[in-house]
Specification:
The chain has 360 residues and is mainly beta. It is built from one helix and 25 strands.
């Protein structure tokens, strides 16, 4: 920009110099004779520029003198015309001209602002599965250059917004669901969402199941009936476990099941519109916001076996920071607030091998 302004001013100076040399020659030809009468020439300018030759103000000039006039516009303005006593101005529409002094004159250089060409750009907005852009909406939208556009991305249930991608250089905060973008060019942006559920655990007879925050499922323990065959499950929002089978509720209300089906307990392929699933037996475990306590079916019977808890499934009484607990046949698992999982009890089928789990 500075180079452009310097070239522009150099161009003006060159033109003014040529103009003044020519004017001096004209004045020199008429320079003989008696002392002439003198008159006042008052020069001013409007907003947007200045008269640089002979300047602005009131000048006392000899009658018949040809005075050079040079008007220079400011940036983003242009010269329009000379107004006032322009009868002896050679060209009232030219920024470089002359006026012949034949009386008292008042003239003004008028400038106008440049009309900027209206520039519009296309802003293309889209979203991934799991949400939408509610402000300003999605599709191809047109905005004038430098327009600041509000952006609001809203996640569906079980999803969370994770960021804007694409031409994000002019987005104020690409990681915020509510932000702005300044339109300076054609650009395309996408609001991205990821499946997100609360992690949970479930304990079957001899296996343990964990629901991860991304909707996938892990399992450990006995797989004699295929109850741990859950590696390909996705979009799950709840899991539960029976003695020899596992059930998962999907985000669309459908249900998945794996494991023993000897009683038809896995015949859930046509279920839809569900909001909760449940399976399990034998013992109940409770939590009060961090600590754990137990009650099981045996304790409601007078003939409770003396070794009912011989496998150590109650050895988690010292657990802390527990968000959820789940009882199995002879083992118990707990989900901690940091996403890790703890387990106690029988591990003959490796149902307690959850030390490396993190469900967040």
């Amino acid at each position: 920009m500075n180079i452009g302004l310097s070239l522009r001013r150099h161009h003006y100076v060159k033109r003014v110099s040529i103009f003044l040399i020519a004017l001096a020659l004209i004045v020199g030809v008429t320079g003989c004779g008696p002392a002439p009468l003198q008159h006042a020439l008052t020069i001013s300018s409007s907003v947007g520029g200045n008269v640089i030759t002979p300047g602005e103000g009131t000048f006392t000039i000899d009658y018949g003198t040809v005075v050079g006039l040079v008007a220079e516009p400011d940036d983003n303005f242009h010269f329009v015309q000379w107004t006032g006593d322009v009868g002896t101005v050679a060209d009232a529409g030219a920024a470089f001209t002359t006026i012949t002094i034949e009386g008292d004159y008042t003239i003004t250089a008028q400038f106008g602002i440049d009309l900027q060409e209206l520039i519009e750009y296309e802003l293309t907005i889209s979203s991934t599965a799991g949400g939408s852009v509610t402000v300003p909406g999605e599709g191809v939208l047109e905005y004038e250059e430098e327009t600041v556009v509000d952006l609001v991305a809203v996640a569906d249930d079980c999803y969370e917004f994770v960021g804007w991608t694409g031409d994000v250089e002019d987005i104020d905060d690409p990681l915020s669901a509510t932000t702005t973008i300044t339109v300076n060019d054609n650009c395309s942006i996408t609001a991205n969402f990821e499946f997100k559920v609360d992690p949970m655990i479930a304990a079957g007879g001899y296996h343990t199941v964990g629901l991860k925050s991304n909707g996938t499922v892990v399992a450990a323990g006995s797989n004699a009936s295929g109850q741990c065959d859950v590696d390909d499950w996705e979009d799950i929002i709840q899991v539960t476990a029976g003695v020899y089978h596992t059930v998962g509720l999907k985000d669309d209300g459908a249900v998945a099941a794996a494991g023993s089906n000897d009683a038809g307990q896995c015949d859930v392929g046509d279920w839809e519109g569900m909001f909760q699933v449940a399976a399990g037996e034998q013992q109940e475990v409770g939590g009060d916001g961090g600590d754990v306590f137990w009650q099981d079916a045996h304790e409601r019977l007078a003939d409770r076996p003396a070794d009912a808890h011989a496998d150590g499934q109650r050895d988690g009484a010292g657990w802390t920071d527990i968000l959820q607990v789940a009882p199995g046949e002879d083992h118990t698992v707990g989900l901690k607030d940091d996403g890790t999982v703890v387990a106690v009890g029988d591990n003959d089928h490796y149902q307690c091998d959850v030390d490396d789990w993190n469900l967040n």
